[in-house]
Amino acid sequence: MTPLVSAATLFGLCASGMVGIGLYGLIVLPDALRKLLAFNILGSGVFILFGVIGRRGAAAGLDGDPVPQAIVITGIVVAFSATALAATLLLKISDAENEPEDGGKDEP
Amino acid sequence: MMPVPVNDAASLLLVLAVLLPILGLCAMLGLRGLHPERVARVAVPLGVALAVAVLVEVWTGGQALHYTLGDWEPPLGLRLRADGLSAVMLVLSAVIILAAALFSQRQFRTPEGIAGDTRAPFTFWSMLMAMWSALNLVFLGEDLFNFFVALELLTFSAVTLVCLDGRTATLHAALRYLLFALLGSVLYLLGVALIYGRYGVLDIGLLHELVQADPVTLAAVAMMTVGLMAKASLFPLHLWLPPAHAGAPPAASAVLSALVVKAPFFLILRLWFDLLPPLPSPLAGQLLAALGAGAILLCSLVALRQARLKLLIAYSTVAQIGYLFLMFPLAAGPLAFWETIGWTGGVLQLVSHAFAKAAMFLAAGLIAETLGHDRIGEFAGLARRLPVAVAAFALAGLSLMGLPPSGGFNAKLLLLSAAAASGQWWIAAVILAGGMLAAGYVFRVLGAAMADGPAGEAGGPPSPLARQLVVLALALVAVALGFVPLQPFALLGIGREVLP
User: Fold this and answer.
1) For B103-145, how does the pLDDT look when each residue is reduced to its tens digit (9 = 90+)?
2) CB B175 to CB A90 under 8 A?
3) Which of A72, A87, A102, B94 has the most CB atoms around it within 10 Å of its CB?
4) Considering only alpha carbons, which residue of chain B is nearest residue A88?
């Protein structure tokens, strides 16, 4: 029995859905922490897309192309570092604004 | 079997150009973060020498340099490549970073004794080195995914430099910059995924052979372009730039405005000219130019209204980046793009803006140090106090306004002639209006500084002459670029017609 949609198509649709949700959140949500989470959803969508492309075997019709896997691993490391950097900035901002003395007053 | 390529000694220069700043960074770590400025004193001149050697090699050889990593040919391996444009960008980055390093030698050094703050100098110098390596990787790369990694390294080091002083305002600016940059990089990565899915290769040279103007390719390039626009702060995605560049230390602002926003632009150039086939319609290029025109007109007007000098200069950066995007419709036509005056004018605008803007941010740094503020309304008497810095600001202003003799004049004249020759009069009108507006904001600062007033006496001690001379030298280079011939340069075409 052949399935109604192939696994690659199904995951491709999931990927585009996550990209859409992430992009919407990144643009619309006002809070920086939510924007950061939206960025991660968007990034996961792109990584799933790479997985689909690897499964379909873009280069030379290989079944399970390894290049997208390598790209996703690097991409995850980069996205993790970016999230860590943004979270550190958020913590610093929250520390600075909760200080009783000069919190938020040193605007230019 | 493919013949094993030989990486000769000259092509090893490309690897060293990427590696040297990282070695400098490792040395700084090895010294436990103490006296990073001494490491920079060795690494920066070496890096300048490397960049000049690459330029000389490309220029005299008349062809691009290649380095194939580990002798693995693309599509399996990665390749570094330096053509005429990359060599120019390498030298430009090296010279601007040299100026920033000379300017910061005293400001960011490990203080004597144990009480001082060692973290700020270490962060400044190590991030400057990381940024330099990432810039060189962008200028030398050939692989679309490798560019993504280089852009991320660039963003992380730049964000750290923006919030170096740790004030709440600069932390907010850095966070906003990071979020814009992350949106840009994830859109870029999405484009890379589509390109890989369509063609199965990521090397620009190989893609150049395969690529067709089909919907997938166009969608991918459109997404990559929008992502890179956010990183290059093209209007209307520029909102992060003014607070970020105005909040960074002056030497960092100079590097950010002169180089860091140019790296994504350089990638847009590579995508549009080296990767894309001739487009079915000129509309896309005109859309980019229209956004550039919006940047020139609106952000120049906003710059006119700024009360603080660094914010004024930052808005002027957004406006001047607009000029770069005018080259997309102007380099189109029957000629090969690297032989058009539109292409030459655009590249010259990139280079002369880098020198002029670095000079302006460093001059603003000297002014802020001397006066203790950078409010333009209280500049009266400044020209007597800091004559060299104000003169450097004025000379750099020549280039932004497009008055002769300056690199900006030649660049804008070439773009103007290209617009007139191809009958795109609206672009010509925007270039002229942008020059008038730039004159407005430059003279507003100069007028305030030349007036007689109390700023001549008040404030801290005067800056050392050496730092003022660094600023003046940058501004003089921007002026000296006005003596390049007004025609397409052979150097910028090297390696373009024979993409591998």
Assistant:
1) 888 777 777 665 567 788 888 999 999 999 999 999 999 899 9
2) yes
3) B94
4) B175
Contact status, residue A19 vs residue B190, Cβ threshold 8 Å: yes
Domain membership of residue A103 (yes or no) is no
Q: Are B395 and B477 in contact (CB under 8 A)?
A: no
| Domain residue ranges in chain B | 1-140, 141-280, 294-500
CA distance linking residue B252 with residue B463, whole number of Å: 18
Q: Please give the structure tokens belonging to residue B226.
A: 């929008």
Long-range CB pairs of B40-49, under 8 A, 24+ apart, other chains included = B40/B101, B40/B105, B40/B125, B40/B128, B40/B129, B41/B101, B41/B105, B43/B129, B44/B94, B44/B97, B44/B98, B44/B101, B45/B98, B46/B20, B47/B17, B47/B20, B47/B21, B47/B94, B47/B97, B47/B132, B48/B91, B48/B94, B48/B95, B48/B98
B313 with B360: CB under 8 angstroms? yes
Give me the residue from B163, B186, B189 closest to A89, CB to CB. Answer: B163
pLDDT greater than 60 at residue A108: no
Does A104 reside within a domain?
no
The domain total for chain A is: 1
Q: Are A42 and B168 a contacting pair at CB < 8 A?
A: no
